[in-house]
Specification:
264 residues, 9 strands, 10 helices, alpha/beta
C-alpha cells in the first residue's frame, strides 16, 4: 500500500544567515591531512560564507573528498582545524547535512526508500528515541521535493543510479540543516536528474543555506555555482566565481594541462 502522509510537524526554521556574515559557515585553518605520512592536503585555509553555492574543483587525487571528510570530522588532520559557524563539528553536527559519493554506499542493504530518508532524522532524535509518524511524514515530504514519493516503499537496491542519488539528497534535506556537503552528486546521473539536483541546490541557497559540492565537470562550474575552491593538495584559489575561475588559475590547478580548461 502506498504510504499516505498527514501534514508533518515541521521543525522551527532557523533564521538564514546573510552571505558574507562575520562568522563564516565553514572556516578551515592551516589544515594538513596525511595518509601513511604522505600529505593529501597541505596547509589549507578556507572561509566559506553562509548562503553561497560553492564548488570544490581539482584533478583526481587533489584531496577534494578528503577535504570534505575533514570538514565532517571523518578524517583526523595532522594539523589545523575546521570550525562550523565558529564551533567544532561535534557541537554543530545537527546543522550539517551530508551526501556521500554514491559509489561508497552499500546499495544492497535491504531497506526501503522511506526508511533510508528517515535515517536523516536520527541525529535530531538521539539514540533512545525511535522514529515515529512525524519522522515518516517529514521523510515523505523530502521525497516529494526530489520527485521520488512514488518510490517510498521500493527497496533501495531496485532504483537506478539517478534515483538513488535523489533519495540520498532527500535524506540530507530531512535534516533541515544549515550547511549541505555533497560529494559529486551529479556523478552517473542523467541530464533530467542533474537539472533537478541543481534546481534543488539553488532553492537551498535561496533559503540562506550553504551548499558545498565536490564537482568534476569544469564546463558547468560557472553555470551552477557562485563560489569555487580550486584545489590540488594545496589551495590554489578560493572565492567568488568571477574572481577565481580564470584560465590562469585553472592551468595552475591542473598542472598546465590547458585541455582541462574550459573556453568561455
Amino acid at each position: 500500500m502506498m504510504y499516505q502522509p498527514h501534514q508533518p510537524h515541521q521543525p522551527p526554521p532557523r533564521p538564514p544567515a546573510a552571505p558574507h556574515a562575520a562568522v563564516p559557515a565553514i572556516a578551515v585553518s592551516d589544515l594538513t591531512v596525511a595518509y601513511h605520512e604522505q600529505p593529501v592536503l597541505w596547509d589549507i585555509d578556507l572561509h566559506v560564507p553562509a548562503g553561497v553555492l560553492l564548488a570544490i574543483v581539482g584533478p583526481n587525487g587533489a584531496g577534494k573528498t578528503t577535504l570534505m571528510k575533514a570538514m565532517l570530522g571523518l578524517v583526523k588532520p595532522a594539523a589545523g582545524q575546521v570550525a562550523i559557524f565558529g564551533g567544532p563539528y561535534r557541537q554543530q553536527r545537527q546543522r550539517v547535512g551530508y551526501v556521500p559519493q554514491r559509489g561508497s554506499v552499500d546499495w544492497d542493504f535491504p531497506t526501503s526508500v522511506l526508511d533510508v530518508v528517515m535515517m536523516g532524522r536520527y541525529g535530531a532524535l538521539g539514540w533512545f528515541r525511535r522514529p515515529g509518524r512525524n519522522e515518516r511524514d517529514l521523510a515523505f515530504t523530502a521525497l516529494q521535493q526530489v520527485n521520488m514519493e512514488a518510490y517510498a516503499a521500493r527497496q533501495i537496491s531496485q532504483l537506478s543510479g539517478g534515483q538513488q542519488q535523489r533519495v540520498f539528497l532527500a535524506r540530507a534535506l530531512v535534516q533541515a540543516a544549515d550547511i549541505y556537503l555533497m560529494d559529486e552528486p551529479f556523478q552517473g546521473v542523467d541530464a533530467v536528474t542533474e537539472h533537478a539536483i541543481i534546481e534543488l541546490l539553488r532553492e537551498l541557497r535561496a533559503q540562506g543555506k550553504t551548499v558545498v559540492v565536490v564537482h568534476h565537470d569544469l564546463q558547468t562550474v560557472p553555470e551552477y555555482f557562485d563560489w569555487v575552491t580550486l584545489l590540488n593538495v594545496r589551495r590554489i584559489a578560493h572565492g567568488p566565481m568571477a574572481e577565481v575561475f580564470t584560465e590562469a588559475n585553472l592551468s595552475h590547478t591542473y598542472g598546465g594541462r590547458t585541455a582541462a580548461v574550459p573556453r568561455r
